[in-house]
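Schema walkthrough. Field components (list of strings):
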Amino acid sequence: MAMSEIAGAATRGAKFRRAILPYLYLIPAFAVMTIITFYPLVYQVIVSFTDFQTKDLRLGLASPALNFIGLQNYVDILTAGLPVQNFEFFRILTYNFWWALTNVMVHVPAGVLIAVLLNVQGLWLKRVYRAVYILPVVVPPLVVATVWRNIFDEQYGALNQFLTAIAMWFGSTDIIQIRWLTEYAPPIPWLLPNGPLPLAYYAMMLANFWLGWPFMTVVATGALQSIPKDLYEAASIDGASDTQQFWNITVPLLRPAMIPASVYGFTTSFNLFAFVYFMTGGGPARSTEILVTFAYDLVRNLRLFGAAAAFSVFIFFVSLTVFLITNRITHATQSYTEA
Amino acid sequence: MKNTKELHDYKKSKNALVRFFNANTSNEVGGRDLPLWRQILLQVLTLVIALEVMFPILYIITLSFSSSTARPSSLQLIPKEISLVAYGQVLDRPTANPVSFIELLRNSFFLSFGVGAIALLIAVTAAYSFSRFNFKMRQVLMVMIFIPLLMPAVGLSTPLYLLMNSFRVFQCGGAIAIEPFMTCVGGQLLFNLRDSLLGVGIAMIAGALPFAVWNLKGYLDTIPKELEEAAAIDGASPNQIFFKIVLPLAVPQLAVTFFLGFIGHWQEFAMPWLFLTKPQDYTLSMTLYNMTGQYANAIPWNRFAAMAVIVALPVAITYIALQKYITSGLTAGGVKG
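Field assembly_structure (string):
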């Protein structure tokens, strides 16, 4: 700690200046955030205690028609008392966690395996594949969702056409019209008892798989390249097989990179607004709704601003819990000296 | 002299070709060669994955080259015709509104560039503070920076809308009145912050900050502290250390962070859609969003596809060109040494 020794030797004025320095560097960020984050946040908390409606939008909290209704919005959300069909808070919450978790559980192993495949020494066309594999990351989610919604369309969709072609090959003459995104009956009823998963969930998992693994491959590739080659050489001299090398060298050394990436992937999937909204809009019957899409629906279509504000406060606390837990894993907020 | 240079260039180009087809990522010459049967097996595997990736992309590209506006009734991945009709129409008259493609492009660029640059400027000092200093409230303040990630954008958008909407400029007789500081009854509205790219940009910075701070802090953590200590011994003030030593070293990561933010802002449509009402302020992504909506069967499909390609292409090309830096930047941001 040479820095602090120097500071200790300096005068009291310099000491003070040094003590406030970190705060000075934070001023720009917090000045901006006070106006565009903290003020709206406080405002939103106040709105959550009112019956804020469209007519109050012009005057905001100064509107004379505004009534303070205490915790009514919060109670309504928890007891499904909102004038909204098929809404149950804990079902959406469970589904949201399940959705994010299952996505990450599929994306990370796939991403790592593909990165390992791309890292094989002497593989031809490596750079071409690396460039191609990155494409899903850069296509706007809106476009991705629109394309996949088309693929799953019951009449025009590529998937049903493909299945029909296969069925015809086996002698069937029926045209297959599976309602991938709108069928309500769950294919596996016992999975996730709090609210069975509709066919749309599996369709979205498939589409989001396309979207999700390339990012994990990017991160895993970066980490793979930093593993010293000597380790593998030493292991193979000692007679370790490729599989043993994978489990005993590659996997442990990838972990430091893949854990933060998994956390990032979890948060991204947890709040995957544009994709979910454009794939199913939360349907059928709100069974694929996640928290953010429901919050959007409350504001944009149902115009229940008070309830939306209360709902946002719930989301805030859910996300804060997730953030604090994942922060323990990734140490994102630790300073350099604590590491 | 000229001949040897040519020979050298030829060798270099040949090497480049070899490197291109057989990139050895470990920068190590030699190593064991892949047996042919394994090479073929792996090639089949990588090709299948490449097809999986390309399948939706080819679908959109094929659609964009079609001259038919109808919804495609069969799956087509290789264009039957190369018609630039859709591109022509999109470039000539992207929406039903009187706004040109160039204006949309300019708005998109202005918004993405402005938000990215300002967020970066604000984030880098904060990231430095969080990375290098240990002070009271550090953890709490850092969690506060991440609040926009915890609160969905839609949750903050209503108050932001109202806040921006209260800032208006009126033409009041001969004078100019600025609300909320002055009042003017029956004046003519000149400017509404909410209904302007500036207002949307300010609102979008909130969402851009957490990622920028996180990504920069992760990188600053990897810069050895010895450099700063040496400078401090030489008598450099903390500000000099930041501007003369840390900032120059962080330039590659600043570029990566800026670009990753830029992609996000380039694709953003929800916030601008909520705030902006004048067609001349619309962005490319908003136009793309406008083409989908609830009238799925009324979409001119080839034009939507052409617009999608136009929106995605510049970002895709830059991303692939900078892939190496982005990869190392992301890894540095996330991994603690």
